[in-house]
Amino acid sequence: MNWHKLVSKEYASRSFLTEVFNQLLVFALYFIALYLSSWVSNHLETVAQSSAIYLPAGVKLAFFVILPVRFWPMLWIASRLYASYLSVYYNGGWSFDLFHGFFQELTYMTIVYSFKKSRWPPKVTSNSGALSLILLAVISASFKWFLFSSAFEFTTWLKGKQVLQYQLNMTLGDLTGTLLVAPALLLLSQSYSRMFSRHHAVILLSLFALAFIYIVSYLNHSDLYPLLRLCSLLPVIWFSYKFGIKGAIASALVSNVLIVAQAGLTQDATNTYISQLFILANSVTGLLIGTATNELKIKNNQLQASNEKLTALLEKNKQLAKRMVTVQENERKYLSQELHDELGQNLTALKTDLTVLSIAQRNNENALVEGLKENAKAMYDSVYQIMHHLRPRELDELGLEQALKEGRFKSLLSKASIKYIAEINLNSAISDEHQTAVYRICQEAVTNCIKHSTATELRLRLTAHEQYIRLTIMDNGKTKITQHESGGYGISFIEERVIALGGTYTITKIDGFKIEAYFDI
C-alpha cells in the first residue's frame, strides 16, 4: 500500500514539474515572439506612435487561440513584463503593474474564448474556421481600439476627428499584423509533426524561387514595385489551388513579408497604407481559397475512397451473383438429368406398356386404358417441359447457334403463329457461362412474347467478338398485360443474368418490345 502511495506521489511530482516547465516555456516563447514582432513593427512606423503593421497583435491572437486556457495567465504575465521592458526602453524607468489594463485584457480573453468554444472555432483547416479567424481578428482589433482609445489618456492630446483617425489607424494596424502573422503560426502549430515532408519541400523551393524573382525584379527596376505589389495576389491564388491551405498561407506570408520590407525601407505613409490593403487582400484571399481547396481535396479523397469501396463491393456482388447462377445451373442440370434418367424412362415404359395393353385388347375397347394413355402422355409432356426449363438439352446437344436457329424457340413461336428470324454471327467462341445466359435471356423473351404480347414477328440478333457479345431481341407487338400484373419476374430474371456476368442491358417499349444486352469480355 505504501509502495502505491510512493508511486502516486512520484507521478504527481513529475506531472507538476512537467506543467511548470511547459508554463515557463510558453512564457519564454511568448516574450521572445513579442520582442521580435515589436522590433519589426517599430521599423514600420510611418506615423509617430502609430505602427502601420502591428505584428504583436497577430502573435497575441495566435498564442491565445493555440494554447489552452490554463496557459493564459502566463501569457498575461509575459505581456505585462514586456510592457515594463518597453517602459524602461522608452522612458528609462521600471514600471511593472500587473493589473494595468486588466479589464481590457479580460474582455479580450472573453472574446477569444467565446470564439474557441463556438460552433466554428478559429482554425486554418476549414473554410468556416478561416472565416471565424478573420472575424475574430476584426472584432478583437476594433473592440480594443474603439472602446479603449477614447479614454482620457488619449483624449487629452487628441481632439475630435483626430481620435477617430487614431482609432482607425491603430485598428487597421492591428488587423494587418494579425492576418499577416496569426495564420502562419496557427498552421505551424497544427502541422509541426509533418514539417519535413516531400510535399513541404516542393512548397519551400517554389516560395524561394518566387521571393528571388521579386527581389531581383525590385533591385533591377524599383519603379516596378507597384506592379509587383499588384501582382502579388496571383502567386497566392496559384499556390492555394496547387497546395491547398499550406501553399496559400506560405505564399501569402512571403508576398506580405516582401511588401512589409519595402514599406519599412520607404517609410512613406501613403505607400504604407496601400501596402496594408494588399497585405489584407493577400491574407484573406489565401485563407479562403486555401481552405476551400483543402476541403475540396478532402472531399475528393473521401469520395474516391468511397468509390473504391463501392467498386470492390460491386465486384464482390458480381462474383457472388455469378457463383449463384453457376450453382443454380448446375443444380438444374442435375435435376433435369435425374428426371430424364429416372422419371422420364419410367413414363416411357408406362406409355409402352399401355400401348401394348391397348393392342392386346383391340377388340374390346376399354375407356380406362385410353384414359391412362392420355394421362401418361400428359405426364410425359409435363416432365419434358420441366426438364427443358431446368436445363435445355438442345443447348448441350446442338450448340448455341443451332439451338437458337432451329431449336425449341422456332417451334414454339411457329405454334403461336409468330414469325421467327434469327441472325447469328459468331466470330469468336463463347464461354459456357455466356452461352447459358444468352439462351436463358432468349428463352425468357420468347416466353414473354408468346404469353403477354400481340406480336406477329420476333427477331433475334446475336453477335460475338473477342471483346464483346451483343444480343438484341425485338418484336412488333403490344403488351397485353402490364408488368405489375405479370409480376415483372421475367425482367428481373434477365437483369440477374446480365449483371451476374458484368454486362449491361436496356429494355424499350417503342413500336414493340426490345431487349438489348451487352457483355464486355
UniProtKB/TrEMBL annotation:
GO molecular function: kinase activity
Presence of keyword Membrane: yes
SUPFAM superfamilies assigned to the protein according to its UniProt record, in alphabetical order: ATPase domain of HSP90 chaperone/DNA topoisomerase II/histidine kinase
CDD domains documented for this protein: HATPase_UhpB-NarQ-NarX-like
InterPro entries given in the database record: HATPase_C_sf, HATPase_dom, MASE1, Sensor_HK_TwoCompSys, Sig_transdc_His_kin_sub3_dim/P
Domain Histidine kinase/HSP90-like ATPase, first and last residues per copy: 435-516
Main localization category: membrane
Subcellular location: Cell membrane
Keyword Mitochondrion: no
Domain called Signal transduction histidine kinase subgroup 3 dimerisation and phosphoacceptor: residue spans: 331-395
Domain MASE1: 24-295
Membrane topology: Multi-pass membrane protein
Domain of life: Bacteria
UniProt keyword list: Cell membrane, Coiled coil, Kinase, Membrane, Transferase, Transmembrane, Transmembrane helix, Two-component regulatory system
Pfam families reported in the protein's UniProt record: HATPase_c, HisKA_3, MASE1
Residue intervals passing through the bilayer: 20-40, 52-78, 98-115, 127-148, 168-188, 200-218, 248-267, 273-292
Annotated coiled-coil segments of the chain: 293-330
Protein's recorded name: Two-component system sensor histidine kinase UhpB
Lineage, uppermost ranks: Bacteria, Pseudomonadati, Pseudomonadota, Gammaproteobacteria, Alteromonadales
